[in-house]
Amino acid sequence: MAVREIEPIVLELDRLEQMAESGYYNPYTMFEWPDALEPDRPWMSESLTTLAGTPMWDELTREQQLALTKYEAINFFSLNIHGIRELMSEVVMRIHERTYSNVSEFLHHFIGEENEHMWFFAQFCLRYGGKLYPAQPTLKAASVDHLSQVARELIVFARILIFEEIVDHYNALMATDQSLPHIAREINRVHHQDESRHVAFGRMIFLNLLKQVAGRDPEEVPVVAEYLESYLQYSIGTLYNPAAYRDAGIPDALALRRRALAHPARVQAHDKVLKRTRAFLSKAGVGRELIKR
Ligand SMILES: [Fe+2]
Ligand SMILES: [Fe+2]
């Protein structure tokens, strides 16, 4: 029976732990929160909104365009909050398990940092947007329920990694976008800094677990690949929130969402967001080319 158990995860994390310690900051005092944001600035980079590059964007009034950047920023930060809560609860459950005892020091940093991220994202949403958008239904993992324990463990950490890589694409671009209000830029910048460590760790633990899966039952690998590709697409879909369209005063929110998601300019934009992650998965041997059609 022992052979079915997950082998303890051993990773070289000294450098990441040192960086977490030396870069430690107090999130509760480091930001200056203005009472209100300048009304004529976008809250999210215009090129990152879900209608960017399509005629649907051009058809909006300037007022609607600015409103869309605001509500999509609130949606993006809300997605962060819900995603963090999900990943934190998974990590908390594992922190003192034998499998993870060698990485628990890093996991402590991880949980602490994520708690702080959740706080500053919620501050932004509540102060300036007056609300969070509710969590969207998560992608069911029924197709992978029957897999081995180690494969299901791999899926848990892969979901965390994919979520963090997608978010980081947006954070990295908005961290330097001078058109945004200073506080919006700062939140993106600070998050991007912490996430570079999380992504590095996420890739290491992913590769470790994938190796265990492939060593035990290589037939599980294409099943994982298929699930991960659907998770990538599901994650992109969550950015297109009809409620944000409605709040921005744009009619026919559901139809607009469908049209936008399928528009060639958007398909191209999605590929750009997912490029780095897909390249990593392919190189690891679990890319979408394994999916049987
Ligand atoms: Fe985070
Ligand atoms: Fe993170």
From TrEMBL:
InterPro entries: AurF/CmlI, Ferritin-like_SF, RNR-like. One of its GO terms (molecular function) is oxidoreductase activity. Coiled coil: none annotated. Gene3D superfamilies: Ribonucleotide Reductase, subunit A. This is AurF domain containing protein. It comes from Nonomuraea soli.
